[in-house]
Structure formats: C-alpha cells, structure tokens
Amino acid sequence: MATTQLTPIDRQLLERVLADSGRIRALVVGDLMLDEYLFGKAERISPEAPVQVVDVQKDDLRLGGAGNVINNLVTLGCRVEVASVLGDDSDGALLRASLQRQGISVDGIVLQAGRVTSRKTRVIASNQQVLRIDRESRDAVSPAAEAELLQRIEAAMGRCDVILVSDYLKGVLTPTVLAAIIGGAKARGVAVVVDPKGDDYGKYRGATLLTPNRKEAQIASGIAIRDEASLAAAGEKLCVGLDLQALLITRSEEGMSLFYHEGRAVHLPTEAREVFDVSGAGDTVLALVGIGLAAGLEFAMAARIANVAAGIVVGKVGTSTVTADELVESAGRQHADSDFKIKSRAALALILEKERRAGRRIVFTNGCFDLLHVGHVKYLQQARRLGDLLVLGLNS
Predict the structure, then answer these.
(1) Quick one: 210 and 275 in the same domain?
(2) What tens digit of pLDDT does each residue of 103-137 get?
(3) Which of 174, 178, 217, 287 has the fewest CB atoms within 10 Å, measured from its CB?
(4) Is 359 found in the same domain as 262?
(5) Residue 206: pLDDT above 60?
C-alpha cells in the first residue's frame, strides 16, 4: 500500500474554511444523550463500604453522543439540523430544550412513548473520572418511530451539505435508517461520514467515510492491529470491502491513519500535548471531517484539521469542543515551517495572556538574525529551554 507524504496545513486555507463554516448546513443523525458531570473532591473513604466519598462541588449537564457532534459544529458556526428519536420523558424534554437554546430546530426529533432518553453521569474527582452511571435504552426504536424518523430525514436531506452519522448503538440507527441515509445521500451527491459502533459494519456499506478507532477497526475487520502491516491490512479490508471512498482509523497516542479505496494511505502523528479525557474526541473528529468535506477539502486535509482538533479536546476534561482560534493556534504550534509562527502584536498579546493563565513560563529575546548561522541556532535553542514558550522579536 502506497503511503502519501504529509504537507503542512496551509494557514490561509484553514482560516478560509473556518470563516466559511457559517455557510455549511450539516444534518446530524444518531443517538442523542445527556452527559452529566459531577465535579468534586475525593478525600475520604466511606464507613459503609470500601469506596471513595466524592464531595460534589459543581455539576454540569451537556449534550452528549450525537449531541456532542452538534456542540462542535455549533461552536464553529455551522448551521445544524438534527434527526433522532427520544423518549417522551423529562430527560427528553431537557435535551430538546438544550437544542433550542442553541437555535437548533427540534422538528427532526421523534418522540417514542415509554422509551428512556439516554443519560450518562460521570463523577470527576481531581480531574479523574472515578465512576460512570448509565441510564438508557438499547432497544431498536419502534417501527412507528422508525417510519416517522425516515420521513424527517428525507425532508432534511435536501437542505444539507454533509450528513454526519453518530452511532452509539442505542437503537436509533437501524439498518433500514442507515440504508435510507446512505442511498439518499448518494442520489443527492452529499457526503455521509459515519462514526461507527459494533461488529457489523455491513450496515454502513457505501458511506463516504468511516471514522472507527483502533479497537473498533480490529473488531470489524477481524484483524488484530499490532503493527503497520496489520493496520494496513485492516484498513484495506474495511475500505474496499465496505465500498467506502476512505476510512480514517483513530489510533490514540499514535495519531490517525487514512486509507483510500484505491490503496493509498496517509499516516498522521498525534497532535495532543496533554491528555486528560478522551471522551468525546471521536465526536470532534466526526464534526471536523464533516466541515472539511463540506468545504470542499480533500480527505487528507480534512483529516489533518480533525487531528489537530482532537489533540485539543483531549486536553480538556469532559466532552468538549474546539474553537476556531484554538485550531489556528494549535495548527501553527505544530508546524514550525509555516507562517503560523508570525504574529501581530494584538494576536501575540492574546496568546501570551492565555499562556500566563495556564502558568506557563514565557521567554523573550530579540535580534537581527540577517545571516542565520550555527551560533544563532544554538542561542535560540538555549533560550527555548529556559521556558515553555519562546517569543522572538526581529529587529528592523
């Protein structure tokens, strides 16, 4: 399998995509849920049982699952439509209200009596997740709800530039629903990007792109991914066997690998600096790849931008999103050979303020550096070692 060499992310291209994201209309179909976070301290052991006692100091309720894909899209200014099935319960009402507060129509949401709306409660102590409690339904939606959902999806397809499918195996994305999405999108020339789950990937056949993680790709392909050769075998088997245009396997600390139907591969090293919480990173990848494809980017460039975004969100606690400013700054930090490093005084002030808040040590030096020689290089290397960030002023 041929491997394509990487090129730096073009700054103007990235900024154009982000500036134009407000014109992108994305349809998100999948399993919506509530993510509840209880933040506190764990400094005692319960006298009732050998378990930690967490003193809750703050709680937070967020959109999760397919809802976190929506969060990422909205943060970057996209126009979003959603299609899903919820329970006719209090959590379903909370979820719909949360969508409406973000200006998202709930016309595409079907309510099914007796169904439980998914809620995942995570207990976080000292930035570490110590417990998760799930309340959910995993049964397939009822035939009546499925039929109504298909009508809502059909109505929304004609208005969207990209379709993002977020499957958490909670019963919304039945084989019938997936076939209708993929078939309808092909007829309209719209890309379908899927974050898959489970061991039967046949239901995703014909999608534009799948974004499984390494474990999911192993299960779906039946190939244990231990090295580059087995990775390539798994990627090729899934990409060709499922008639995908491309397959993006996320590999945690090893980055991402993009496989094309015709046999090419692109390997992207991880962009993460610190990893606090990987929950929701797949949602961010799905959203950013979707934005890239809707903006007309080739698969590799869309994946590169998604890789940068994933490196940002894993450095945050809980299911999180990434802003346009964070993307531009992080992409520049990772690519020293690009013009990302050149900053205006105003832009530099914002960066330094953020770095100071994070407790990082800032080093400044200046000079002409007209004829750069080895002494200059060693001097700059030593200056960089004195702190976390080096600011270089060029004398006129």
Answers:
(1) yes
(2) 999 999 999 999 999 999 999 998 889 999 999 99
(3) 174
(4) no
(5) yes
Catalytic entry in 31, 283, 337, 388: 283
**Among candidate residues 261, 183, 163, 251, the one with its CA nearest the CA of residue 211:** 251
Range of the domain at 363: 345-394
Q: Which two tokens stand for residue 155?
A: 């109505």
Q: Could you tell me if 106 and 248 lie in one domain? A: yes
CA neighbor of 17 nearest in space, from 374, 327, 256, 260: 327
* Residues 227, 360 within the same domain: no
Residue 93 covered by a domain = yes
Residue 370: active-site member: no
* Distance, CA of 177 to CA of 154 (rounded, Å): 10
Answer yes or no: do 299 and 376 share one domain: no
Residues 202 and 278 in one domain: yes
Residue closest to 302 by CA, chosen among 260, 365, 340: 260
Split into its structural domains, the chain has a count of 2
Catalogue the E-assigned strands of the chain.
Answer: 25-30, 32-45, 52-65, 79-87, 109-112, 118-125, 128-135, 162-166, 191-195, 209-210, 246-250, 256-260, 265-268, 362-367, 389-394
Distances in Å between the Cα of 70 and the Cα atoms of 87, 119, 293, 300, 386 are 19, 17, 16, 23, 41
The sheet carrying 209-210 orders its strands as: 109-112, 79-87, 25-30, 162-166, 191-195, 209-210, 246-250, 256-260, 265-268
Lowest model confidence (mean pLDDT) among 65-69, 163-167, 303-307, 359-363: 359-363
Please report the sign of the dihedral spanned by the C-alpha atoms of residue 18, residue 22, residue 23, residue 27.
positive
Q: Which residues pair with 27 in a beta bridge?
A: 81, 163
Q: Report the predicted TM-score, pTM, of the whole model to 2 decimal places.
A: 0.83
